[in-house]
Amino acid sequence: MAVNLFYFLVFPGLLFAATVGAFLSWFDRKITARVQFRKGPPLLQPFYDFFKLLLVKETILPKHGSPVIFLLAPVLSVFGATTAGIFILLPLFNITTGFRGDLLVIFYLLTIPSFSYIIGSLASANPLAAVGGSREMKLILSYELTFLLFIAGVIMKCGQEFNLYTIIQTQQEGSPFIGSISGVLLFIVGIFCIQAKLALVPFDMPEAEAEITEGIFIEYSGAAYALIKLAKYIMLFILPAFLIALLMNGFKLEGINILWAVLKVIMVVLILTLIRNTNPRIKIKQAVNFFLIWMNLLAVIALVLIAFGY
């Protein structure tokens, strides 16, 4: 029991994933600033933001909403992100105890933060939050099918294997899945799915600061909003780590490979950052069409290539 609590609360769970995610958030903001010819924030700015919200700012509850559900939603988002993170990071760090990392379980756990944001926005009884929640739901319905096809492609490449440990081991004993044509196509699909899951431009319609002033998070403040930031930090780390586990050989934590593991995470986050800084926000209808037509088509082509051994 003590070991399981350590995994959940410390390493590779809540504390570790949130800390790494906060540093990646700084990296994202720093690159964004450089692209826009600005200096950018100091290294510890994400930690300052989190603790200021948690310890200093007041948590204001919506007058006409449901306070219990409103406050429970951020807690649920952190729980879902942390649990998914454990099941992704345990195989990556070659910790073989406990749950064996079934991909379908991870797939469902990764949807918990998004659904919790929708629940919280509707519980606030704010019209702009409801618009944001509606957009988030439409976005989920569009990219989750694509993400499932992406995972199906990885399962096919690994000989119908659902276990994340085995998928990583197969790549380390042979070659990374990204080293094939179908692997490159799956990587493209996976990157855009992660972009949407993180609600980064061009898929930030649920928040859309210029249109609906933070949308689903408009009523959140103080400690409740700090938990939302915490969940976002965790997701910014575990989603790139999941992509690396599925297509890029996972982590080898020995010698120079430790540096290579860090560089792979930074590279994926850099790609996400560059995408969000070189594209405008699109309409929700355009996002739905993008995933349901073009990304699904790309994923299906990858599946066909896998069936033929490419």
Describe the structure.
With 310 residues, the chain is an all-alpha fold. The protein has one domain. It contains 13 helices and no strands. α2 packs across α12, α3 packs antiparallel against α11 and α6 runs antiparallel to α7. The N and C termini lie far apart (45 Å). 45% of the residues are buried.
Tell me the count of domains. 1
Low-confidence stretches: none
Q: What multimeric state do the chains show?
A: single chain
Taking Cα atoms only, what radius of gyration do you get, to the nearest Å? 19 Å
Order of helices and strands: HHHHHHHHHHHHH
Q: Name the overall outline.
A: globular
Structure summarized in a few sentences:
Helices cover 71% and strands 0% of the residues. The protein is built from 13 helices and no strands.
Itemize the secondary structure elements and their pairings.
Blueprint: H1 2-9, H2 14-35, H3 45-55, H4 67-92, H5 103-109, H6 112-123, H7 127-157, H8 164-173, H9 181-197, H10 209-212, H11 222-247, H12 257-277, H13 284-307
Descriptive tags:
single chain; 13 helices; globular
